[in-house]
From TrEMBL, chain A:
Pfam families: SusD-like_2. Keywords: Lipoprotein. Transmembrane segments: none annotated. It comes from Sphingobacterium corticibacter. This is SusD/RagB family nutrient-binding outer membrane lipoprotein. It comes from the Bacteria. Residues 431-450 are annotated as: Disordered.
UniProtKB/TrEMBL annotation, chain B:
It comes from Sphingobacterium corticibacter. This is SusC/RagA family TonB-linked outer membrane protein. It holds the Pfam family CarbopepD_reg_2. One of its GO terms (cellular component) is cell outer membrane. Residues 1-21 form the signal peptide. Belongs to the TonB-dependent receptor family. Keywords: Cell outer membrane, Membrane, Signal, Transmembrane, Transmembrane beta strand, Transport. Residues 119-220 form the TonB-dependent receptor plug domain. It is a multi-pass membrane protein.
Amino acid sequence: MKRYIKQLSTCMVVAAVLSSCTKNFESINTSPNDALNPNTTLLLSNALRSLGSQTEGVAGWAKDLYPQYMAEIQYTSESRFQNTIYNFYPIYNAPLQDLQTIIALNMDPVASTQAYVTDGGDSESQIGVARVLKAFYFMHMTDRWGMIPYSEALQGRANLTPSYDSQESVYNALFVELTEAQEQLKGGGSVNGDIVFNGNVSQWVKWANTLRMAAALHIRKVNPEKARTEFLAAYEAGAMSAIGDNAVFRYLNDANNQSPLFNNYEVTGRVDYAVSEYMIEQLELHNDPRLSIFALPALSTGTYVGMPFGLIQGQTGAYNRENVSLIGDRFTAQNSELPLNTYAQVEFMLAEAAFLGWIPDAQTHYLNGIRASFMQYEVEDLEESYAEYVAQPTVAYNPTSGLEQIITQKWLANYMANGYESWTDWRRTGFPRLDPGPAPQNTNGSLPRRQAYTTEEAGRNTQSYRDAIAQQGADALTTRVWWDVED
Amino acid sequence: MERKLFSFILAWLLLMGIAHAQTRTISGNVVSSRTGQPLAGATVRATGTDIAVQTNAQGKFTIDLSGNTSTLTVNFVGMQQQIFPLGSDNTINIQLDDEDQSVGEVIVTALGVQRTRNSLGYSVQAIKGEDLSMVRQPDLNTALAGKIAGVQVQSTSGAAFGTSTIRIRGINSLSGGNPIYVVDGMITEPEAVNMDDVADLTVLKGPAATALYGQRGSEGAVVIKTLGGRTRDGVGVNFNQATSFESVYLLPKYQNEYAGGYSQEWSTYNHNPNIAPDYLAPYDGVNILNYGADESWGPRMDGTMYMPFYGWDPSHPQFGQLTALVPQPNNVRDFYNTGVSANTNIAFDKAGDNYQTRFSFTNVSRTGIVPNSKLGRNWLSTNSSLNLTDKLTVSANVNFQHEVYNNRPKDGYSSQTTGSFNQWFQRQLDMSTLRDYKRPDGTFRSWNIVSPTNPNPAYWDNPYTEVYENTQFDTYQRIYGNITASYQLTNALSASVIARGNFLNMEETERIASGTLQQASYSQYLNNQDEVNYVGTLAFKEQYGDFTVDAAAFGEYRRNQRRFTDAATAGGLAVPGLYTLEASIDRPTVQTRYFDQRVNSLYGYAAVGYKDFLYLEGNIRNDWSSTLPRDNNSFLYGGLSTSFIFSHFIQPNEFFSFGKLRASFAKVGTDTDPYQILQTYSIRNAYGSNPLLTVPDVIPNANLLPTLSTSYEIGTELRFFNSRLLFDFNYYTRSATNQILNLPISGTTGFAQSLINAGRIDNHGYEFTLGGTPIRNSNFKWDLNANIGINRNKVVRLDEQVSNLQIELDDTPSSFGFVGSPLITLNAYEGQPYGQLIGMGIVKDDNGNRVVGEDGYYLREDNMNLGSIIPDFTGGLTSSFSYKNFRAGFSLDFQKGGKYMSISSMFGNYTGVLAETAGLNENGVPRRDPVENMGGTLLPGVKENGEVNDIFVDTQNLYENDMFSLWEEWVYDRSFIKLREVNIGYDLPTRLFQNTPFKSASFSLIATNPWLIYAKNRNVDPSILETSWFEGGQLPSTRSWGFSLRLGL
């Protein structure tokens, strides 16, 4: 028996040793694979990198298909609006969460003094930049989906089922955000990791005010007074005033950062997209010098041949990459540019404001917009081409059809850029006069008026999703968002 | 040299025989040890000779022996063979024990503890090694199919060389989960188990059985004891060779009426001198197909002369030659080869008073049905022990495995072979015209050329380009085993120290060749993972009067480490054909990871038996895991089980032979993976020289608790008619609380998943086994065993904020869908059973009829419940026969109910490849003809006003647009019955080689997966589903037949 006791005590020693071996467990369980501290410089770069992503940013094909800059050659599901569902999760997950983290760190009294935050630059500027970019993403989202989680979003575990905010309250919040952010940025302190404006904070101020002007025009039919006030205040505060102010995401000559169209044309060799027939028609109608920049002649004919938009698959068999005009090299280059907002847009917005009587001189702004677009696309013999182009009676400003002219020119100027804005203009004004093709689905014979929420939302955020639909209308392409009112 | 040695040994043995030739007569009787009844027709043989007699009706025998015979070998069907040592007595009495399910059957349980079956208070099922290796199933789990109640085998196509997984007792864990495989104490992977080395295999199903394995055994354990050296006659060599031939079994039913294209109208070639070379001018006006189409809605295959894709290729021997457009019904089958698999094992074993040892070498060489796919596998293992002193024993078991895969065929939607054939293909293609895939200049020929003047592939490479040029090369090296020293302190008490290790070193490389559809690339994945553990044990075994006591205590230290590098070139290769990372044109994408986890444990058990009819066992375990927060990292659990042999109190009779009741209760605790509790930030691919960092998508949990699952189990085991009929029933419940899982959450939170302790998921189930030996006489024996398992579950509580879990079951994504289209998701709603498929469905009327709209297409409704993937029940049937030296057997398994989704069925119809898109419609008119010409397809259902649908719709539009992502149409019942294996064997009579050193020889014919007896949708074999709930372009099911030869000397 004694022996057993001895062995038992040995056993207990073993037990004590084993349990005391847990002392370093915390360091063992600290990941050596990831950064322990959030470096705000790198977080900002990532939130900006997302801009050029098809899922996390604004570069999905719909941006070029809905405004009919391009048409699908063979598989036409997206241009026939068979695609209804677009997923906003990646936008919240990647750029917005990173921006939210930048703001939270800079607001936190302890974290904001740490090197991983202070290295990111001036604290006010870091917050300001993050707020502007956040506002850009949120406006982009609410214009696509309508109601979205905003005030309860991005809170992680604190709220796993964020409710949806009405588009009106999102817009109200965005006006405040953009106004306050550009005030914060006027301090001028630089930021690091800015891969769009290279830390030039005054450019951010201009982008903020440009976004605020765009937002104002979006809501001008549902709240004309607020629209006017916000527009004029933003213009006053200083919007983009030269093409050097353009907010542009630049793809790189690098497989990890290349343009999606380069990937489709050159890497996978699928060549799914060509310039739309309507686009070619519009360019040819006004002898537009941008035609040869925007499109390539069809290989088999040597002439410009647009691809009809939204054909059914039985009809597409007659078309292939050889007998239609492919998209111009400038846009299919590996390191092509993705303009987000431009000076040309600002001039067209001013022209629209003038057309509405908010400011004077629609024609000047209209012509400035065209000129800015020619400059942006580096049209050869700029002055001569421009003069020739605007001298045409169909191009010269005509106050009776002013809005159509302004928006159509704005549409041309936004070719293959952030086309969601062009789609928004179409929804607001009905211009340009886009034909949805012979067999659109899910849209009652029109273009989509919004995009549908991801299916997963119905299963993961069920009640909020149902409440949003109850308030906004069916989760369909035909449901109009708040600012999209029928005339 | 070897031959000389062999002859020498032979001669020597013969001489020995002659030298000792003397005769002796022995007589006696043979009885059953259990019943005492005489056994008529038992064979009594002088061991190792052909001298044999049979017992008479009274079980008596008389045999004349040569003087050097020292043992008799006694055989009786259904009884264990006995080698009876001859003493000086010439009259002997031999008792034989029942072969299987016998009263004294010893079972290997958790931690390798051997117990009598009777003493176990929980359900286990055991399989003998030879039953596994008889039929050469390519992997262990597939070999278990149908043999164990409550085990669902999830196999994938044999063509992929993959191993299947098994699920014990349904889905207990919200994320699926697989059992552990324990080989001589070391937890390893099922693919590491060499079936040639298995002596005994036991499946431990519930927590009561596995609690001693702790957290890792929470989903069950497959416990394997490997063969060691045996005291035996002969030299101690076993040789076993099996060769089998594998071929494609089921392919989808294709249509053979229409060729590739998007329209039935013929097109002609219009020579355009601007873009076309002059040598094509003569072909102006010839019929062409739409080569760039990857669908088959094209012209009728009616013999029309046309220019095939290769006719435009000036380097092709048939350049410029028209051919007739005719059906190629066997084109897909023609692509596949007959795979050949050779499995050779040689083992040497011996045992003496102070040692036992065994060496085994196995080689598997296999070619697959997909051209250029190859597998080579070698195992080397040894299992030995030495009794160094009376008290000190040292043993070691080491297994080394080396595997090389060349081009392991890929399952999946975008695979360039199956993914294309069944989903995106032109039906008129003749495989013989594709085989010559390379042009003299090294570029590749695709059937899917953009146009006559553009030879680039539009969407697909030639499948032969894929298999010969886009190659993969994978190697795996695994070594695992243990070394143990045990010391007998007293008769009752022993102590041992065990060191175990399991080391895996793997490399997977993949090439995408320059000039193929995809950008050229090279990727390399290097992974090292290992586990080391040390265990100290104190074991006690003693008998006190009517009581037996068996107890042990263990202390264990375990460390798991893993490090990997995953890298791929980006932007192409600097030099075509140079497959290295440094050839990357852009900065390669690289991921390096290191994981470290430690678990310390103390555990033990105590089992008490009373008079062979009442048993009680308790076990307890405490783990300390590094992966949990400090305050929660110690967790205690254990179980109690009891077994009562009530037949002990029943007078032995002819009808009722044996009865046992068992009951158990257990808790098992589980931790998680490393690095889950602290917030960290992840690097992403840099933007130029700007590094990127992002907040990861999973919300960590600093307050994580261990998972605890509690189970109760009761069962009974009954035997009737002298144990000829066996019945086993088991009922269990299991409740898992605080399950650790990544809960998929709304992305609007800023995250994709939240690591939580999920509330509670409950399971209960029934297992029935009915078996027996309907016929048994001296020459013939027939065994039959059937089992059924039923499991039901319910998600009781999930999370305070979220009431639905979209589940990533066994690493299958929780949802599937195409960009822009509604997803189909796998869900677990609170208060409901787990595994509900939800997606776009079809509106039904009150009678359940599908409703069509005014246009004749189905009315649809999103977020419809499309059924559960959980089967109603699963089961199997095995049977074996033996007649004299012949034996035969088969096994089948089945599943009733459960749903799966088939992407390849959707696309096979979308692209007009499958049979249902062609043929005649209800009007007797081709369904592909225009609706206005009485063509089209009539969807079964009713109109909104209740009338039977009579509106035909355009067939192509139906499948290309309307049925796309209409998930209800593509969700199928997964019920199936599959014959898994059939074997026929013959043991050669020993007299045939009595003058040779051979002691035994047998020959078998074997067939694996010969027949899918039943399946609802035979376009897909549901028994080999690519993922846990859907498939897309899965490889075809295969069947194989072969033969095996075993020799013993």
